[in-house]
Specification:
binds adenosine-5'-monophosphate-propyl ester, alpha/beta, 633 residues, 18 helices, eight-stranded mixed β-sheet
């Protein structure tokens, strides 16, 4: 079994060992899995090029570890419990044995389309069991999954399909999300028509039975594809360093990049973190509310729990449907033991039903988690008191798409939970804080840039098709370090507190959005000359999107123009990137070299116009008064 730390002494011992002998530490964790051939080298450590490899030469298949390995001991245990959008519909239970059979049928269907090891498969799916089945089916045959959050627009989907040249797109007919029924097959049709020539098949799961357009040579219904398929499918034997998946995420510049994770290291790390952070015990019911379109869904709905033989709950709907008690109702109904969600959901539920959790029996909860953005103190206390009720410690888990798994977190019942602190690094993780010159700030009570000094098994390997981008983004800022893009503080006891992004990435409701992407989208409007986008504090979303827009002509009907801009952003990226505030300006503040001075824009958007500092070095200092006067906060 994977190491499960049970005491502070054991934590300290494991941590020390992981620093003194990282290879020994990780080899021990890896040896608890099923390998078809053992690795010859634990770690290839090159943080410069970068070229990090784990368990080199090892052969395995992650689905054998998620599924086959468990059949003898827990074949009849629920692997997945699915809770549908509507509370009065029955939930679905899939045992490990049933899940394996479904995965194999789907894998055989994909093979019948000609899908082979290394082919890329795009997903645009709702939160239904079939998304997990198809993801595992890809991994079974060595195809690389690229899941795109089904809230992105056709343009954004097309961009991602083209970047990784996907051969198949897997989607549903419609997505049910609360009161909405979203025609997603239409979005896929539109995306594929935008020059996605690599797409040979579109596999469609009939989720609602609504009407869809059909391209007979290309589209296949899921139920037809799996009809008659065998429940057996020999797993493709993968190299530890073969690609497992691509997941696109936003950066401070340019288009979203495809973060690449590989099989062996990701397997070891997601299971190790799942077992320790959630202190999962045999028979527990675990629920993570993330969408599978994000890394949290990959690592902590599918892979981490299934690798650990857990029962993982999937929810199709949204927190507020039919009311703000839905999450608590689900916890009560399924006697959930570990619950993992995002601060934005906690804040929204707190606002919608401060006392709503009181009406439910939440006594089964043992650990409650938070992920994706800093959790503010008020939300932390509400979560602790109303949901955890003093029995369930909060784990405020810090990590990223690029890290593959949780990096800094309290261990429930072992290290203490302090509001707003992600606390201590897990054994195996060596964080540090640097100043802007790259000098490490040792000791406690320091604040600076958060970096990681040593590789861990699920670190990203590259950005798909553009290794240089990976190097320059994460490994070039400070030699021999992985740079996270986050700022952090360390307190007197060595706990870490994450402050937030120090680059041009905004974290809106826990979703990463690059300001450059939103600006590019706004600039598509023919009436716009240029725009600048910054984040500002938002009560529910954590950060909101504030856009300063310079128009070609005087704006007569501001509301109308705003609506048009929002429509353009929705079309280019999706509704999640819509600015909350749009301020029309006649000029943007520029440096003498023509760069937009975002510092000033951030301050004004945050209501801190009084502390703009020196603006005299601007090329156009006169614009500052206009910006301040027109501020919409
Ligand atoms: O700024 C940090 C924030 O989310 C970023 C990573 O976003 P993404 O790759 O989408 O992954 C989100 C889910 C792992 C980080 O750079 N972040 C994540 N967790 C926390 C956090 N900020 C503060 N506290 C956290 N617990």
């Amino acid at each position: 079994m994977t190491l499960q730390i049970k005491s502070i002494e054991q934590y300290q011992e494991a941590y020390d060992k992981s620093v003194e002998d990282p290879e020994g530490f990780w080899a021990e964790q890896a040896s608890t899995f099923l390998w078809r051939k053992k690795w010859h080298t634990v770690l290839k450590n090159d943080f410069i090029t970068p070229d990090v490899q784990w368990f080199v030469g090892g052969k395995m298949n992650i689905t054998e570890n998620c599924l086959d390995r468990h059949i003898a001991t827990r074949g009849d245990q629920d692997a997945i419990i699915w809770e549908p959008n509507e509370p009065d519909e029955p939930s679905v239970h899939l045992t490990y044995r049933e899940l394996l059979a479904e995965v194999n049928k789907c894998a055989n269907a994909l093979k019948s389309f000609g899908v082979k090891k290394g082919d890329r498969i795009c997903f645009y799916m709702p939160m239904i069991p079939q998304v997990a089945i198809a993801i595992l089916a890809c991994a079974r045959i060595g195809a690389i999954h690229s899941v795109v959050f089904a809230g992105f627009s056709a343009n954004a989907l097309a961009e991602r399909i083209k970047d990784s040249q996907c051969k198949v797109v897997i989607c549903s007919d419609y997505n049910r999300r609360g009161p909405k029924n979203i025609p997603v097959k239409d979005v896929v049709d539109e995306a594929v028509s935008m020059g996605c020539d690599s797409v040979e098949k579109v596999l469609v799961f009939q989720s609602t039975g609504g009407k869809v357009m059909w391209e007979p040579n290309r589209d296949v219904w899921w139920h037809d594809a799996i009809k008659g398929m065998s429940k057996e499918c020999a797993p493709e034997i993968m190299d530890s360093e073969d690609m497992l998946f691509i997941l696109y995420t936003s950066g401070s510049t340019g288009k979203p990049k495809g973060v690449v994770h590989t099989c062996g290291g990701y397997m070891v790390y997601t299971s190790y973190t799942f077992m320790n952070v959630f202190q999962y015990q045999e028979g527990d019911i675990y629920w993570c509310t993330a969408d599978v379109g994000w890394i949290t869904g990959h690592s902590y709905i599918i892979y981490g729990p299934l690798l650990s033989g857990a029962t993982t709950l999937m929810f199709e709907g949204v927190p507020g449907h039919p009311d703000a008690g839905r999450f608590w109702h689900i916890c009560e109904k399924h006697r959930v033991n570990q619950f993992y969600t995002a601060p934005t959901a906690i804040r929204a539920l707190m606002a919608a039903g401060y006392n709503a959790p009181n009406s439910y029996d939440l006594s089964s909860l043992k650990v409650i988690g938070s992920v994706g953005e800093p959790i503010n103190e008020e939300a932390w206390h509400w979560y602790d008191e109303k949901v955890g009720r003093g029995n369930a410690p909060i784990v405020d888990t810090w990590w990223q798409t690029e890290t593959g798994g949780i990096m800094i977190t309290p261990l429930p019942g072992i290290t203490d939970s302090k509001p707003c602190f992600a606390s201590y690094p897990l054994p195996g993780i060596q964080p540090c804080i640097l100043d802007a010159n790259g000098i490490e700030l040792t000791g406690n009570e320091v604040e600076g840039l958060l970096c990681i000094k040593f590789p861990w098994p699920s670190i990203l390997r590259t950005t798909y098709g553009d290794h240089e981008r990976c190097r320059s983004n994460y490994f070039a800022a400070f030699p021999n370090m992985y740079f996270t893009g986050d700022g952090a503080k360390r307190d007197t006891d060595g706990r870490y507190r994450i402050i937030g992004r120090v680059d041009d990435v905004i974290n809106v409701s826990g979703h990463r959005i690059g300001t450059a992407e939103v600006e590019d989208a706004i600039d598509q409007h023919s009436g716009v000359v240029e725009s600048a986008v910054v984040g500002y504090p938002h009560d529910i979303k954590g950060q909101g999107i504030y856009a300063y827009v310079k128009a070609h002509h005087e704006v007569i009907d501001e509301d109308h123009f705003r609506r048009e801009i929002l429509a353009v952003v929705t079309k280019e990226i999706g509704p999640i990137a819509k600015p909350d505030i749009i301020q029309f300006v006649s000029q943007l503040p520029k440096t003498r070299s023509g760069k937009i001075m975002r510092r000033i824009l951030r301050k004004i958007a945050s209501g801190e116009s009084d502390s703009l500092g020196d603006t005299s070095t601007l090329l156009n200092p006169e614009c500052v008064e206009e910006l301040k006067a027109g501020a919409l906060v």
